[in-house]
Design goal:
Blueprint (H helix, E strand, L loop, with lengths): L1 H21 L17 H34 L18 H29 L8 E8 L2 E5 L4 E5 L9 E4 L4 E7 L4 E4 L7 E3 L5 E5 L5 E7 L11 E7 L1 H16 L11
Parallel strand pairs: 1-5, 4-10
Antiparallel strand pairs: 1-2, 2-3, 5-8, 6-7, 6-9, 9-10
């Protein structure tokens, strides 16, 4: 009896621990609770999950309610010896209904998901700028028009940010240089694989200044956990000044070393 009494408490404790941990952010700023989207494609994915959750919750509640009703209504303690509950096996109408209903729900979710993913993970033609993101073991490189920013992985501090201007539609092209990586910043976009030899595409458009965090979402080797991502959005004047500094540094010629005296 004591063991049975402890079981519900154990389950409640595990559920409480899971809820507590889900509210905590990790090193990369990742939380299982969805962050507020800051890019339209991030909002699309957020809305997609909300819409999918509606039938999922309805089905879950309906199934659990039916199970609970059957357990309570036909429990053995309340029935005479040898009692057999009413059988519905072979009920044609019911079997057709519980075959067609899930099929319709799954097909509707699949169709809507396909439309959203096609919209948010295809190369766009009206981009104001393009950045090529390459994943490597273990970090990221961001190639702009005139310079490249390296974002090497670390667990001891913040990584170099991927800087973008606000109010700018940016085309993102993803490539892998060794193994498959996956670029994921939940507030901005869904997970996008960086595959060697096969470019994938997405985009972003952030209308507010700020910093957002993500991480590689594909197990890619021993240093996978170090592949943190930081995206920083700046107003256009600040971004232009930052880009000018990066361009100057990329094109700076090293000063010649003085020859040793004979």
């Amino acid at each position: 009896m004591k063991a049975r009494g402890r079981t519900p408490l154990t389950i409640l404790g595990l559920v409480g621990a899971a809820l507590f941990l889900s509210s905590c952010e990790g090193l990369g700023g990742i939380s299982p609770i969805f962050p507020t989207p800051v890019s339209p494609n991030g909002q699309d994915i957020y809305t997609l999950y909300e819409i999918i959750s509606v039938p999922a919750i309805i089905v879950f509640i309906g199934v659990e309610a039916a199970l609970l009703w059957v357990v309570l209504r036909y429990r053995r303690a309340k029935q005479p010896a040898g009692y057999v509950p009413p059988q519905i096996h072979g009920h044609t109408g019911l079997e057709i209904a519980w075959t067609i209903a899930p099929l319709v729900i799954v097909l509707a979710i699949a169709a809507y998901s396909f439309v959203v993913l096609q919209k948010d993970f295809q190369p766009i033609n009206n981009a104001q700028m393009t950045v090529i993101i390459r994943g490597h073991q273990f970090g990221w490189t961001y190639t702009y028009d005139n310079f490249t920013v390296d974002q090497e992985g670390t667990l001891t501090g913040d990584v170099t940010p991927f800087v973008v201007p606000t109010h700018t539609l940016i085309k993102l092209q993803f490539e892998g240089t060794d193994v498959i990586h996956s670029w994921w910043v939940p507030a901005i976009s869904g997970k996008t694989d960086a595959v060697p030899g096969y470019p994938n595409f997405s985009w972003l458009k952030i209308d507010q200044v700020g910093t957002w965090h993500g991480e590689c979402a594909e197990l890619c080797g021993a240093g996978h956990s170090t592949m943190q991502i930081t995206v920083q959005a700046m107003d256009q004047p600040q971004y232009d000044a930052w880009a000018a500094q990066q361009t100057a540094a990329a094109h700076a010629t090293p000063s010649p070393s003085s020859s040793p005296s004979p």
